[in-house]
Amino acid sequence: MKTTQILIAGFGGQGVLFAGKLLAYKGLIEDKNVSWLPSYGPEMRGGTANCSVIISDTPVGSPIVSAPDCLIAMNLPSLLKYKDSVVSGGVIIIDSTLITEKIDRDDVSVYYVPATKMANDEGFSTLANMILIGKLLDACDEFTIDGTEAALEKVIPPRKAEMLGINLKAIKLGYDFK
Amino acid sequence: MVVFEKPKALADVSMHYCPGCTHGIIHRLVAEVIDELGIEGKTIGVAPVGCSVMAYNYFNCDMVEAAHGRAPAVATGLKRADPENHIVFTYQGDGDLASIGMAETVHSATRNENITVIFVNNAIYGMTGGQMAPTSLPGQVTQTSPYGRDVNHCGFPIKVCEMLSELDGPEYLERVAVNNVKNVKKAKMAIKKAFENQINGKGFSLVEVVSSCPTNWGMTPQKALQWVEENMIPYYPLGVYKDRSADKAE
Amino acid sequence: MAKKVLMKGNEAIAEAAIMAGCRHYFGYPITPQTEIAAYMAKRMPKIGGTFLQAESEVAAINMVYGVASTGKRVMTSSSSPGVALKSEGLSYMAGSDLPGLIVNVQRGGPGLGGIQPSQSDYFMATKAGGHGDFRMIVLAPSSVQEMADLTIKGFDLAEKYRMTSMILADGTMGQMMEPVELNEPEIKEYDKSWAVTGTKMQRKHNIINSLSLIPDELEKLNFERFQRYKQIEENEVMYEEFMMDDAEICIAAFGIAARISKNAIIAAREQGIKVGLIRPITLWPFPTEAFAKAADKVNSFISVELSMGQMIEDVRLATGCKKPVTLCNRAGGMIPSPEQVLEAIVNAAKGGNK
Q: Is the complex ipTM more than 0.95?
């Protein structure tokens, strides 16, 4: 019996909600109980945006993630706000292109991924979120990379089907990043 | 040979209106038009809050009683529930249409909602006992303007047809009166046109009927009609304020 | 069986309404329920339905009144300040015995308040939906699946009893996504001979009306209406019991508060504290009997709410003040954490709940 709580946080426009949706769909396909909860309101424009995803073998109670097993931080304010809330033994994944701050905890696994730079180098500047998701699939024991394509097919609308390939490429890039 | 009879669309009940009130005339005109167009079976009327609140008892078609001012919104729902088969009219007074319900009036007009609005303007709140209406004339004495309507204190009367005519939406706006036989005949033609427009799918058609209120004006019925002629009509000139189809034809 | 899909609570309500045969929606934009309007704006024109953005919440509920008068399924949705504006129409619908569905995705108040989740419209929904003596059936979903299921149920109950049903959700329930399974519902047909659809010259005219100037007639209408309400209280109460079999402490919570409470209950049970939950699904009719029975069994109650304590009054009434009832709450758009609820449970277990 396992419950994994993920918090993805960054600026509005970085694809925070989309990244969360991908994880939720992945959980759904794997027949887990899942919930996805966005922050909403004026802060969606430019301020911090975050999304709580819970994937569980048992029914999900509160959909609000206050103590994440895994945090993806895509900007400094988000990292500062949530880094101490990550459970001991948890995972923090940081976009190190945008955040130079280092984590001073030794009870969590931290991954510094220059996702924004990597995405820019590859010519898909909007997919830093997918690179970080790739890293999460590698870093969290509860996840595997299997079934990612099926989940992507659920979250990418048919009219943008041509985006599937590069999303998958971005995820693999993050997954393989050491 | 029958030379005069009650219109079929008018129920065979006695009305509660005061002696000399022109609501009876206007009800009759609406009913005659419904008869002539043969639409009673598909017509749904909306009664307002005000003197004509109980109009739902006076017409033989299906009727709905609306909250104060909301008749055009209710009519919007009734019409859109079955646009092909429902003929919908509202019957509203000046407080209902031009004060509390102004938003509903303006927006149903600008949507060119395919309904017919009969707007009875007698420049006073009748049912509650004669308070100042949005259409009370400058200087008019009412229960709540005992020293006469002071436009510096509570503003000017609202000229509904003129105001709505600035909108691109509405199909047809005409102001008529029922103070003499000639005007009654003209009023009927306008009401008929407002229903025909709806049948032909043309859209929002409003007929403002300048009317009297002998009881709350404190006049005899005859004097009240004279007051309509001398005071109301000069402030609220009769005529067509908008007729989109006719304008196009020109 | 339909396939499970991920949907936002607000979207689940909209799609379920369409599946329930609703083809008319009127609304006015307000956060956090706007997805319902957006969904309807997209879908309705494609299925021959009507979506209309009204000039105000007041106009929207009166458009609902118009369609409801014709006997067709119709709905509106809003959030707290907007629902307050609709109270006029809700009262008129009650007085005219019209069915319809109203959705309130609550936010913090009073006044303009905020836009974060709240349950502070419990009073407004269950006690004071508008002026005059009347009730609404109030349904409180606690999952996205229930957002859909209770929407379908709400339409059915509204027609069955000729009254309004309200879905009382909150910003969290509206915004969150969960797997949901939408199956084609069976739609029961109820008598609509009262509806205004034109006499077709074949019957006496129907009148939809809430005016009745003769007091003893109006009294009679009120008594008859409350006879109907009594049937609802007897037949339509819905609630969920969670770990109540051996419970010594009973939490009362609905919607999002119930979900948070479940986390706390599981954590408390790990500490050996026997605690359970009664989750009202119908807030009106309130599950009075379930709480009365629990009062004979448990030592104390905790009402967990996103308000300054509104449902707690009904819990006290239902339990006849036999056992202490305390409040565990956040307000103004804040949400209690499972830890806060756990603390309240631990405190109650120590006997601090008196």
A: no
